[in-house]
Amino acid sequence: MIFVETDNVDKVDGFMEKKKWKSYDYSLIITIVLLSLFGLVMVFSASMVSAIQWYEVESDYFFKKQRFIMITSLVIFVFFAMAPYRWWSQKFILIPIMLCSIGVLGGLLVYGHVAGNAQSWINIGPIRIQPSEFVKTIVIIYLSATYAKKQSYINDFNRAIAPPLVYLVIVLVLIIKQPDFGTAAIIGLIAMMIIFASGVSYKMIARFIGIGVIAIVLMVLFKNLFFTDEQLSRFSTRSNPFEEMQDSGYHLVNSYIAIGSGGVNGLGIGKGVQKLGYLPESHTDFIMAVIAEELGLWGVAFVILSLAFIVFRGLMIGMRSTDAFGSLMAIGISSMIGIQAFINLGGISGVIPLTGVPLPFVSYGGSSFLQLSVAVGILVNISKYAYSESINNTKESKTDISNKRSTVSNKTVPFRM
């Protein structure tokens, strides 16, 4: 991948640009919209019983809230899709949001609201916000902007790689202290993907892998320092949840039952059984289990293929962009969606321990959906400029070829018998 310096926003920048609508990646936009609408329907199906039984509200309570979140997210998405992505690398924008993210995460440890055994929430009147969700995007922007500026000496660990990791470590420590190991793991993996994509040498990559292995070994040896008793129980029950099906294995066992009951064609939308009080958090973390039960293999395939397409398009946008900042952000955003989807699906299927991570664009959740809207809005904006750059490069190449042909045609060609 070849990066070029882009200190100034290119000639076509502007909040409202003419003749740029065709440059947007509509296949990506349509896939995100369809998956989100599908998720809205499944949120209603998964929550209509639990809303009455557990929360004592109307059956469509979570459906209406998610619909409002989607409408709000649409406005946010449009703004970030139209605003030039290079804005976010400016110091007067980036530094304040970095400092605010540290301040808010630190404040959570004192004033945060506890939900799901984690002190990860802020209550603002009737609105509940999870700041760590938005920190994912802030970390992507910061690391991408920093490593893009350090391209000329990217393999110098002390000058290029290490300084930005100070902010990353502070963020991870504050999130782990909540405790929210799932979100911390996602942010850590996103950071690794951005570093690997920044152009570092294979020697540097091997060095990071070695550090990662050492960190994992230390966490295993001193697991009581890193994990709560509840988190440790998730590791032990993953291998055989049926031994503790009335305790720590309850969630996973009912997830297995829901997935197994659906088969190929499913029981029919709205006809699932496990959501009737057996499967907790059926509209959030375990919504894929409800999809598997009600829509079977076809529903699961639709979600997985849609997410895979979004990740694929994001990676292609990153590879196509010649701007280091845009390329690294596209790779970071698509990696975030893919990693989060893997952790959610891996948790409900028993491949990895449960971490309480929502399924992107499908699960109920305001903070997650709003944060994704910001991220994919930026991704769509990057795709627009990457497309424009490729068109301009193609035109320039054609012009160069035409000029060369014109020069050749004007030369005197010897007459041959």
What share of residues is helical? 55-70%
Distance between the termini: 50 Å
Low-confidence stretches: 4-18, 404-417
Output the number of helix runs. Answer: 13
Main sheet: strand order = 1-2-3
Q: Give the averaged pLDDT, no decimals.
A: 84
Q: Strand fraction band? A: under 5%
Major pleated sheet: 3 strands, antiparallel
Task: Provide the structure class.
Answer: mainly alpha
Radius of gyration from the alpha-carbon trace, in angstroms: 24 Å
GO molecular function: lipid-linked peptidoglycan transporter activity; peptidoglycan glycosyltransferase activity
Subcellular location: Membrane
Pfam family, one: FTSW_RODA_SPOVE
Organism: Pseudoneobacillus rhizosphaerae
Q: What does it look like?
A:
The protein is mainly α and 417 residues long. It has one domain. 67% of the residues lie in helices and 3% in strands. It has helices at residues 26-53, 61-82, 91-111, 131-149, 157-176, 181-197, 202-221, 223-226, 229-239, 250-262, 287-320, 324-348, 366-410, and strands spanning 113-115, 118-124, 127-129. The chain has a three-stranded antiparallel β-sheet, covered by helices on one side. It is globular. The chain starts with 25 loop residues before the first helix and ends in a 7-residue tail after the last helix. The chain crosses the membrane at residues 26-55, 67-85, 92-111, 160-176, 182-201, 208-227, 286-312, 324-343, 363-382. Peptidoglycan polymerase that is essential for cell division. It holds the Pfam family FTSW_RODA_SPOVE. It is a multi-pass membrane protein. Its EC number is 2.4.99.28.
